[in-house]
C-alpha cells in the first residue's frame, strides 16, 4: 500500500498538525506514505517551517512550486509523479487538492482518490453554520460538489461537519464517512509557573485572530466576569487580521488591565497548564485541536454548542457547553467553573481520560488504514 497525501501549503494550521501526527504513525505500521506539497512561489517562506518539520520527522515529501493554484499544469504534474512512483491512493486535503484531484480523474481514471474534509470556506462557514441550507451557490460551492463527485471515497473529521455538508446539499445523506481526529500528547512538565500565570484566576483562549474563532463573544462577557472576579486575567494567544479590532473592543469595554495579547507562542501547553479555564468561542470548527490540547493540559473548557466543539465536549462531564452564541449562557457557564474549583478538577480529569480513551492516535491510524483497504478492494 503506497499513499500520497496532497495539499497546498501556506503555513502550519490544523491540517498540517494532522499530517505530522498521522503520517509517521502510518509509516510505523508499515504503510508507505509520501507528502506532496503544492506551494505558490510567493509563499515559499511561509511554507518552509512545515517542510522543515517534515524533514525533521523523516517524512518523505515532494514539493511542486507554482505561480498560482489555478495553474492548469498542476493535474498533469501530479499525474506524472503518481504514475512514475506507483502510488495506490491519492489522499487529498482542502479544496485546492480536491479540485486538482477531480481534474486528474479526467486524465487518469484508474487512480484511487480519497478526500478528507476539514471544513468549508471560512467566511461562509461562519455565516451559515447554523443555517447550512442557505449557503450561497457560488464558485466554491460548485467546485466542492464537482470534486466530491470525482472522489472514490470521502470522510469528514467530525460528524457535525458531515451534517453541515448534508444540510447544505453538498452531499447526499449517507454519502460521506467520518473518522475523528486522534492524537497522542506528551505529559506537560511545567517550566516556571510565574512565566505563564498572571493572576489568581486566569482564562485562556488560543487560535488565529479571525472571525470564525468568535473572540468578540468572550470579550463581551469579560466585564461581568471581572466584576465577579476582580483579579481575573484573560490571556489571548495568536495572531491574525482581527488583532487591531479586538484591541479596540478591549479599549471600548475599558478592560485593558485584565487582557493580555501575547501573540504567537511556541509553548502554548505551558500557558494552558497555568490557566484555570479555556474558552473556545468558535462559530464552528472541523474538529478543534485546541480542545484536545486543553484536555491534555487538564484545563477545563467552556465552549458553544457549535459544530465540532460539541463532539469533543460533553456537558458537565468533560467541559461546559453554552447555548450557541448567547452571551448570558457563556457568562453563566464560565462563572460556574471559575467559582467551583472542585468542579474544574473533576471535569479536567474526565476530559484527560476521554482524550486518551476515545481520541488516540492509534485509533485514528487504524481506522484510516482500514479505510484505505476498503477503497482498494471496492
The number of distinct structural domains comes to: 2
Which consecutive residue ranges, at least 5 long each, have pLDDT under 50? none
What class do helices, strands and sheet pairing give? alpha/beta
- The number of helical runs is 16
Question: Do you know the CATH topology of the largest domain?
Answer: Rossmann fold
In round numbers, the mean pLDDT is: 95
The strand order across the widest sheet is 3-2-1-4-5-6-7
Q: In which range does the helix fraction lie? A: 40-55%
Main CATH class of the largest domain:
Alpha Beta
Shape: globular
The rounded distance between the terminal residues' Cα atoms is 15 Å
Biggest pleated-sheet summary: 7 strands, parallel
- Percentage beta strand: 15-25%
Report the C-alpha radius of gyration, rounded. Answer: 21 Å
Order of helices and strands: EHEHEHEHEHHEHEHEHEHEHEHEHEHHH
CATH homologous superfamily grouping of the largest domain: Glycogen Phosphorylase B
- Label the CATH architecture of the largest domain: 3-Layer(aba) Sandwich
Q: What is the strand tally?
A: 13
Domain Glycosyl transferase family: 201-353
Organism: Putridiphycobacter roseus
Protein name: Glycosyltransferase
InterPro entries: Glyco_trans_1, Glyco_trans_4-like_N
Amino acid at each position: 500500500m503506497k499513499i500520497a497525501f496532497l495539499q497546498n501549503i501556506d503555513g502550519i494550521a490544523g491540517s498540517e498538525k494532522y499530517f505530522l501526527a498521522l503520517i509517521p504513525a502510518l509509516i510505523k505500521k508499515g504503510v508507505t506514505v509520501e507528502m506532496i506539497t503544492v506551494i505558490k512561489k510567493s509563499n515559499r517562506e511561509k511554507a518552509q517551517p512545515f517542510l522543515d518539520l517534515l524533514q525533521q520527522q523523516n517524512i518523505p515529501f515532494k514539493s511542486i512550486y507554482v505561480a498560482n493554484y489555478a495553474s492548469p499544469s498542476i493535474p498533469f504534474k501530479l499525474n506524472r509523479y503518481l504514475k512514475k512512483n506507483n502510488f495506490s491512493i491519492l489522499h487529498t486535503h482542502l479544496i485546492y487538492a480536491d479540485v486538482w484531484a477531480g481534474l486528474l480523474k479526467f486524465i487518469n481514471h484508474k487512480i484511487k482518490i480519497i478526500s478528507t474534509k476539514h471544513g468549508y470556506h471560512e467566511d461562509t462557514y461562519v455565516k451559515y453554520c447554523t443555517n447550512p441550507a442557505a449557503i450561497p451557490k457560488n464558485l466554491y460551492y460548485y467546485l466542492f460538489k464537482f470534486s466530491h463527485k470525482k472522489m472514490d471515497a470521502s470522510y469528514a473529521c467530525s460528524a457535525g461537519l458531515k451534517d453541515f455538508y448534508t444540510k447544505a446539499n453538498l452531499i447526499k445523506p449517507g454519502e460521506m464517512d467520518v473518522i475523528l481526529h486522534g492524537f497522542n500528547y506528551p505529559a506537560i512538565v511545567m517550566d516556571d509557573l510565574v512565566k505563564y500565570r498572571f493572576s489568581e484566576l486566569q482564562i485562556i483562549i488560543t487560535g488565529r485572530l479571525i472571525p470564525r474563532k468568535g473572540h468578540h463573544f468572550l470579550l463581551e462577557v469579560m466585564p461581568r466576569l471581572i466584576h465577579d472576579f476582580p483579579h481575573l486575567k484573560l490571556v489571548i494567544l495568536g495572531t491574525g487580521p482581527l488583532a487591531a479590532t479586538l484591541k479596540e473592543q478591549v479599549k471600548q469595554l475599558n478592560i485593558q488591565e485584565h487582557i493580555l495579547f501575547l501573540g504567537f507562542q511556541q509553548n502554548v501547553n505551558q500557558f494552558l497548564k497555568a490557566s484555570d479555564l479555556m474558552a473556545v468561542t468558535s462559530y464552528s470548527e472541523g474538529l478543534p485541536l485546541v480542545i484536545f490540547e486543553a484536555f491534555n493540559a487538564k484545563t477545563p473548557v467552556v465552549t458553544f454548542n457549535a459544530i465540532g466543539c460539541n463532539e469533543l465536549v460533553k456537558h458537565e462531564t468533560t467541559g461546559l457547553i453554552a447555548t450557541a452564541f448567547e452571551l448570558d449562557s457563556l457568562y453563566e457557564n464560565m462563572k460556574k467553573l471559575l467559582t467551583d474549583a472542585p468542579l474544574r478538577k473533576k471535569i479536567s480529569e474526565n476530559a484527560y481520560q476521554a482524550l486518551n480513551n476515545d481520541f488516540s492516535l492509534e485509533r485514528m491510524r487504524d481506522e484510516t488504514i482500514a479505510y484505505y483497504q476498503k477503497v482498494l478492494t471496492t
